């Protein structure tokens, strides 16, 4: 998704005047700083000053040395500058945040899907079961080992046998539709066969979770667009820059939407396969 400035890209009003001098004998009273354009070996700063007719300042062979901002500031004395490196860093942070949040969304969707059982036993279906353990709610898998002795049953072996009753109570209260069998050592769970009607109900639940994941992806895209627009308002990016970045962002968004569609279709297939 990373986008870099092309050799002839423009950064409008990236440099601006502050506390201009009041006398003509000093520096001119800047009313506007128009724009500067970047190419491989030079920078051109266009300045409009009241009472003065200045030609563009051409600073050659300084761009690669990262001295342009310093040179201009020394020459003019009243400018605040934002370097290409600073802008690229801000863009990179936005892009990194987008990728990290979208990846987290995919993981959350997968976790939600795993908690919905299909026809086969899967320890992940107990991931969301909470147990009241010494007055504190904890996730079941943090206090017990969960295994699958066969394709239609689960075995829950607590690390602390005194928690068996609490675990049994939590499993009964869950909406998993399984009756726990507590033999004083471990708890066995037998998965009943899913009816056709139940499979369709679970398919609707999975579809809703997939849509929630897509909404989260869209919200991440929206936040990134706002961040780019903020940089545009700060005159660090041009309107064209924002359009290009938004286009790249949409491609990434579409990519993650396809990932959600893919894992949804697989889960739906597992649910509907008898």
UniProtKB/TrEMBL annotation:
<dbReference type="GO" id="GO:0032544">
    <property type="term" value="P:plastid translation"/>
</dbReference>
<protein>
    <recommendedName>
        <fullName>Ribosome-recycling factor, chloroplastic</fullName>
    </recommendedName>
</protein>
<keyword id="KW-0175">Coiled coil</keyword>
<comment type="function">
    <text>Responsible for the release of ribosomes from messenger RNA at the termination of chloroplastic protein biosynthesis.</text>
</comment>
<dbReference type="InterPro" id="IPR036191">
    <property type="entry name" value="RRF_sf"/>
</dbReference>
<feature type="coiled-coil region">
    <location>
        <begin position="221"/>
        <end position="255"/>
    </location>
</feature>
<dbReference type="Pfam" id="PF01765">
    <property type="entry name" value="RRF"/>
</dbReference>
<keyword id="KW-0648">Protein biosynthesis</keyword>
<dbReference type="InterPro" id="IPR023584">
    <property type="entry name" value="Ribosome_recyc_fac_dom"/>
</dbReference>
<dbReference type="InterPro" id="IPR002661">
    <property type="entry name" value="Ribosome_recyc_fac"/>
</dbReference>
<feature type="domain" description="Ribosome recycling factor">
    <location>
        <begin position="110"/>
        <end position="272"/>
    </location>
</feature>
<dbReference type="GO" id="GO:0043023">
    <property type="term" value="F:ribosomal large subunit binding"/>
</dbReference>
<keyword id="KW-0809">Transit peptide</keyword>
<keyword id="KW-0934">Plastid</keyword>
<comment type="similarity">
    <text>Belongs to the RRF family.</text>
</comment>
<keyword id="KW-0150">Chloroplast</keyword>
<dbReference type="GO" id="GO:0009507">
    <property type="term" value="C:chloroplast"/>
</dbReference>
């Amino acid at each position: 998704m990373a986008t870099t400035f092309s050799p002839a890209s423009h950064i409008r009003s990236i440099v601006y005047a502050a506390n201009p001098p009041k006398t003509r004998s000093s520096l001119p009273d800047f009313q506007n700083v128009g724009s500067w354009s970047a190419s491989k070996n030079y920078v051109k700063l266009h300045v409009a000053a009241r009472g003065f007719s200045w030609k563009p300042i051409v600073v050659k062979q300084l761009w690669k040395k990262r001295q342009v901002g310093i040179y201009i500031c020394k020459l003019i004395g009243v400018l605040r500058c934002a370097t290409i490196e600073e802008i690229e860093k801000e863009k990179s942070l936005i892009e990194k945040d987008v990728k990290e949040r979208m990846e987290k969304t995919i993981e959350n969707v997968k976790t939600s899907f795993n908690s919905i059982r299909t026809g086969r036993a899967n320890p992940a279906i107990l991931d969301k079961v909470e147990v009241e353990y010494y007055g504190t709610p904890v996730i079941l898998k943090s206090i017990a080992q969960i295994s699958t002795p066969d394709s239609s049953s689960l075995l829950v072996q607590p690390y602390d046998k005194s928690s068996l009753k609490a675990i049994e109570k939590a499993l009964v209260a869950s909406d998993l539709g399984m009756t726990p069998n507590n033999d004083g050592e471990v708890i066995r769970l037998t998965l009943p066969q899913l009816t056709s009607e139940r499979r369709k109900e679970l398919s609707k639940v999975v579809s809703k979770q997939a849509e929630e994941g897509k909404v989260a992806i869209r919200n991440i895209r929206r936040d990134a667009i706002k961040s780019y627009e903020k940089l545009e308002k700060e005159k660090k990016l041009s309107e064209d820059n924002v359009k290009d970045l938004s286009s790249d962002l949409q491609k990434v968004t579409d990519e993650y939407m396809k990932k959600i569609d893919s894992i949804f279709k697989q889960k739906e297939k597992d649910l509907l396969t008898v």
